[in-house]
């Protein structure tokens, strides 16, 4: 324990904990909406497109945020459009886009020989977060939370029933697009924590665990945020203790917690 | 009586399919009208068009500014984690208004009390009975103080007592001056409430 507390003296650990916790909370809050709207795959699709964008940024020697953010927003719109327009084949479209993006990323990466850098984005390296990444993550997280709070009532309504929202004169397509943009931001910000391969886990898993609790939308969202914070912290300390990638630890802690809560909830039935 | 709703030569198409075919219709303030017809006849399309949820291909609609639409219960996700209050208060939402005022919350509570839902405000939707569930959606619709209330199959699947209780509430709302249009395929509903007219729709046309 003393050794762990000693780690808190290091700036890079504190940076990782603050930025990672904030991003995890944002991811889980948006995750509740994606799970309830049955859009879970959008996060997964975007994460692999995120990998392609990182490969492009590395090949062009540009800051990854500069390439990732516009590309991810465009992709989020594209996925949303296809999902809504061709409901039955929406999942197929996401599968094609995500595997295509992964293949493109690997190809660009191998042609440009940028393997080591890309590896850290695939599997995450939150403890190696630069000061620049740290501040970008903090700003993105605050922006996501602020937009979420400002539009909370609308987001709730359009998540619950977009047809009813339209009957009140509210443009539900705008709010679907807003959620897609926020998801894109989360993926960009979270790529440092779990890597692009596991980012959809920190978006979806706390929300799915929180759904096992009783209460309304607000309560479930708060519980998802708390679960996300706790599992992130546990995952980070596991990674420090066993010298393993943080992302894998966070995801496995989430899955173990989800299984325990599921068993606890159903053991009397 | 003021004619406050009128449809002139309204056509609605789903691709090549004519869902509503040259509809001409008028309704007076305070009326209660049943819309009936077989499955797929166009009756739900008819009230969704009035609610503004479906774009018309041609024609003209004049309607009151405050219309509330209560969708078919099957379209709502019952397992969605939301409390009764969280759902009812959404009826207070308006374009260009992002937050609820204290007055909104008080008025929502007043409607919740009037519909006998006061002990259920923190209950999740999936713990409610069929009758309670319908009253939640009615309460939400009433939050907008509608001049016209549109209900799509509001009592489908309810037991006899809940069915009767629900129509008693609608009779009270109608007697307070709110015009009501009810879509139903169950002709037994006509015995539950005093109405002005029954409109029958078949193949996207008004028969009578």
Tell me what you see in this structure.
- Chain A has helices at residues 2-7, 11-36, 40-60, 64-85, 90-112, 115-123, 131-150, 152-160, 162-167, 172-194, 199-210, 217-242, 246-266.
- With 269 residues, chain A is mainly α.
- Chain A has one domain: ABC transporter involved in vitamin B12 uptake, BtuC (Orthogonal Bundle).
- In chain A, helix 2 (11-36) packs antiparallel against helix 12, helix 8 (152-160) crosses helix 10 and helix 10 crosses helix 11.
- Chain A is globular and about 55 Å long.
- Chain A starts with a helix and ends with a helix.
- The mean pLDDT of chain A is 87.
- Chain B is α/β, with parallel strands linked by helices.
- Chain B folds into two domains: 1-66 and 153-208, Rossmann fold; 73-145, no CATH class.
- Chain B is built from five helices and nine strands.
- Chain B has a six-stranded mixed sheet, sandwiched between helices.
- The A-B interface holds A 36, 150-151, 153-154, 156-157, 160-161, 163-170, 211, 214-220 and B 51-53, 67-69, 71, 75-77, 80-83, 85-87, 90-91, 93-95, 98-100, 122, 124, 140, 144.
